[in-house]
Write a structure and sequence with these properties.
Blueprint: H1 2-22, H2 32-44, E1 59-62, H3 76-88, H4 99-105, H5 109-128, E2 131-132, H6 133-146, H7 162-173, E3 177-185, H8 186-197, E4 204-207, E5 211-216, E6 219-224, H9 236-245, E7 251-254, H10 260-267, E8 275-280, H11 302-310, E9 313-316, H12 317-320
Parallel strand pairs: 1-3, 1-7, 3-4, 7-8, 8-9
Antiparallel strand pairs: 2-6, 5-6
């Protein structure tokens, strides 16, 4: 019997290797992290298994900056705000003495960082408010079409991490509903989430401020303001999940200490066996390497120390991913 099976094994082994390399998560290397994620999905969707999760409970949440796309040297939305200030400044002489505008014009990131939350709010007020929502959408679209990442040289909306995009598709194929829960602006992210990640706008939750409804001569209009600003980070993430989603997630993916409350909230789900995953930026050659000292945002100290206690999977970008970006969308080749 063994003699008969040997030729079959010889035939199947190359096929099995091909399947692993070209399967739904082909941009992931064979590693404990990948195995843990795949095993969790398999157990959660096994109808008669002890860890089966009913389809109506399969809500999975993802941070965006640093989890689905890069956040260095600046978060993409902050870079958009800086570029918009520089584009608009010549038409606004009243801005010329504003220290935040001056710092943006000089690309003085140290001064912008020193300006802190108040400086960020100034940038957002100048570039994200006092306009109809349709105008803001047009500005974002124009920026995406005309600007490239300073390091990778690719359009910002082509820089979604290929392993994570594959994971999103895989989870949806298995009956999970994928949401973005991020500190990024809700309107900004909604302009890219559908095309980049296959996530519709109603499943994108981010920082926001209130809009104002107005009647116009040709219909109605929603005007963006900075009133009632809600910054969707850290402890606010579980709050926004409850407010917008109405379900406790069964899995959560993040990359920074700002995502820890969201992972803790998910890990406390007593109805299922939950999954928590942290993306650790360890690849200075193909992307960036940081945890305690990020260039802009994404500090990861507390999350790494808590991961063993909660059983969170820590994905090592350098060793767990064989691709970072989709070569069909971004042909960035790191120097060797």
């Amino acid at each position: 019997m063994k003699t008969r099976l040997l030729p079959l094994a010889v035939v199947l082994l190359p096929f099995m290797a091909w399947s692993a390399e070209n399967g739904p998560l082909s941009a992931w290397n064979a590693s404990p992290a990948k195995s843990q994620i795949l095993n969790w999905v398999a157990q959660s969707t096994q109808q008669d298994g002890p860890d089966f999760i009913p389809p109506d409970q399969r809500y999975v949440v993802f941070d965006n900056d640093g989890t689905l796309w890069p956040e260095a040297p600046l978060t993409f939305q902050l870079q958009f705000a800086v570029d918009e200030v520089n584009r608009l400044a010549p038409s606004h002489p009243e801005w010329q003495d504003n220290p935040v505008v001056i710092a943006a014009q000089k690309h003085d990131m140290a001064a912008l960082e020193k300006a802190g939350q108040q400086g960020l709010m100034t940038l957002l007020t100048l570039t994200h408010s006092n306009m109809p929502v349709e105008e803001f959408d047009q500005r974002v679209d124009a920026w995406l079409a005309s600007h490239r990442h300073p390091r990778f040289g690719c359009p910002y909306n082509k820089l979604g991490y290929l392993p994570m995009r594959q994971l999103l598709d895989y989870l949806r194929d298995k009956g999970f509903k994928t949401w973005i829960i991020s500190g990024g602006g809700i309107d900004f992210m909604r302009r890219v989430a559908g095309e980049m990640y296959g996530i519709p706008p109603e499943q994108v939750v981010g920082s926001f401020s209130l809009t104002e409804f107005r009647l116009t001569d040709d219909g109605t209009q929603l005007e963006k303001t900075m009133k009632g600003a809600f910054y969707n980070d850290e402890a606010q993430k579980p709050v926004s999940i409850h407010l917008f989603m109405g379900h406790r997630p069964v899995a959560a993916f993040g990359n920074s200490d700002g995502d820890v409350p969201m992972l803790q909230y998910t890990s406390a789900n007593k109805q299922v066996k939950p999954l928590g995953v942290l993306i650790h930026h360890t690849d200075a050659q193909r992307e960036y390497a940081y945890d305690a000292h990020p260039s802009a945002s994404g500090k990861l100290i507390n999350g790494l120390s808590l991961a063993p206690h909660y059983g969170w999977v820590v994905v090592n970008m350098k060793s767990d991913w064989n691709q970072v970006f989709d070569p069909a969308q971004c042909s960035y080749h790191p120097a060797k």
